[in-house]
Design a protein that fits this description.
Largest sheet: 6 strands, mixed, barrel
Order of helices and strands: HHEEHEEHEEHEEHEHEEHEHHHHHEEHH
Radius of gyration: 32 Å
Distance between the termini: 23 Å
Structural class: alpha+beta
Number of helices: 15
Low-confidence stretches: none
Mean pLDDT: 87
Strand content: 15-25%
Strand order of the largest sheet: 3-4-9-6-8-7
Number of domains: 2
Oligomer: single chain
Shape: elongated
Helix content: 40-55%
Length: 399
């Protein structure tokens, strides 16, 4: 291995007498550098966008959510409360959730009313998403917080004391009713806050007090839709989930934040994979320059190869010279590209010189896994390119 590697380094770092060969080699190296920069920055941008998007989900969704396996509600009892008094569980909150019909003046909207108790903000930081008004007032039972999209759909602001926001839900029961006016429970609400997270969440939820939602749905005081849990930072959510599932039994369903947003996570991962494959294809095209550069070098060093063959070098060793040359060309281009790309990522994270809006920097995140992905991808493709180019060497060339 020492002999082919030594010759490969000499060929790579020594200028050729043919200036065209030097230019082709430089272009091939630049292609690897640019490819490494592009692939790493794209992966880092998607990591940043993923983190940026998931930050919103972490605000609105708990670490774990317990709900009934069948039906829309269940009764919380002392046994369940005792199970939740675990050192791995930091806080828990009781919630009631149901689809409802909202009406304001001549406009209407269908969304979910979500009744929450006093511990809700200890589990989810929804108050940080308020951009107008304030969070629920503990002393005003009929107050609600609505999503930004609901506010736009109903042309509804906060603290409108003249016209109330009306909410309707079907009364529980079976069969048909002869009087539609008596088929719904109805309450008048007073919006005191508007939150803004994602478009989907903004048009989905209206937050209210737990007691108000229970009253609207004719629930009993201990009847709820779900329990949302915030775990201790050191707790493993999957382990806690399994332990709680064993204690609660099959009548209850426990979901992690990832399971609650499975479609969203799948979309993010699919987009990440799609762009990785697209830029890998671009890299493959760019690495054809490496193949061309090595083939040109083989032709340029034809006489030297004959000399090496005459001195006892085998055909396999001569091929390995150019395999090493292509590998080294790719490796050094990769190192330079990664250095420049990592520097760019750190600078963007620190100084935020690329902005989406005047107050929001373009999200980007350095992750060591992206370095590994880029390294393995380019090294593998570079080695393959060198292998293809060296296969052009035959006994006819060196004899």
């Amino acid at each position: 291995m020492g002999f082919p590697l030594y010759i490969a380094k000499r060929y790579l770092f020594t200028k050729s007498s043919n200036n065209a060969i030097n230019i082709i080699t430089l272009i091939a190296t630049l292609g690897v550098i640019v490819g490494a920069i592009a692939l790493f920055i794209v992966l880092s941008v998607f990591s940043g966008l993923k983190k940026f998007s998931l930050d919103f989900i972490r605000i609105s969704d708990p670490d774990l959510k317990i709900s009934a396996q069948r039906g829309k509600s269940f009764f919380i009892n002392d046994s369940i409360v005792t199970m939740l008094q675990d050192e791995k569980v930091a806080h828990y909150s009781k919630v009631v959730e149901e689809r409802a019909f909202f009406e304001y003046k001549d406009k209407s909207h269908i969304a979910s009313i979500k009744g929450v108790d006093a511990n809700y903000l200890l589990v989810n930081n929804m108050d940080t998403a308020i951009y107008a008004g304030e969070w629920l007032d503990a002393n005003a039972i009929s107050t609600v917080v609505i999503g930004r999209s609901i506010s736009s759909a109903l042309s509804l602001g906060t603290y409108d004391f003249i016209e109330s926001l009306k909410v309707y839900v079907p009364k529980p029961g079976k069969g048909y009713t002869n009087n539609p006016k008596t088929a719904f429970n109805q309450l008048n609400l007073q919006p005191i806050g508007i939150f803004s997270l994602t478009e989907e969440l903004d048009k989905k939820y209206v937050f209210s007090h737990l007691l108000l939602a229970q009253s609207l749905l004719n629930y009993k005081p201990d009847q709820i839709s779900a329990i949302e849990l915030k775990l201790m930072p050191t707790a493993d959510k999957n382990t806690v989930k399994q332990e709680l599932q064993m204690k609660l039994g099959n009548d209850y369903k426990i979901e992690t934040r990832e399971q609650l947003n499975a479609a969203f996570y799948k979309m993010l991962n699919s987009e990440n994979l799609a762009f990785y494959l697209i830029f890998t294809l671009i890299l493959i095209i760019a690495l054809f320059n490496v193949v061309g550069a090595i083939i040109m070098m083989i032709l340029d060093k034809k006489e030297n190869l004959k000399t090496l063959f005459s001195l006892g070098a085998t055909l396999k060793e001569i091929k390995r010279i150019f395999i090493f040359q292509g590998f080294l060309l790719t490796f050094f281009g990769l190192i330079i590209g990664l250095f420049l790309a990592i520097s760019f990522v750190f600078l963007q994270e620190k100084f935020e010189f690329i902005m989406i809006t005047p107050s929001l920097a373009y999200p980007i995140e350095f992750r060591i896994v992206n370095v590994i992905i880029v390294f393995i991808t380019i090294i593998s493709l570079g080695y393959l390119a060198a292998l293809i180019a060296s296969s052009r060497i035959s006994t006819k060339i060196i004899q």
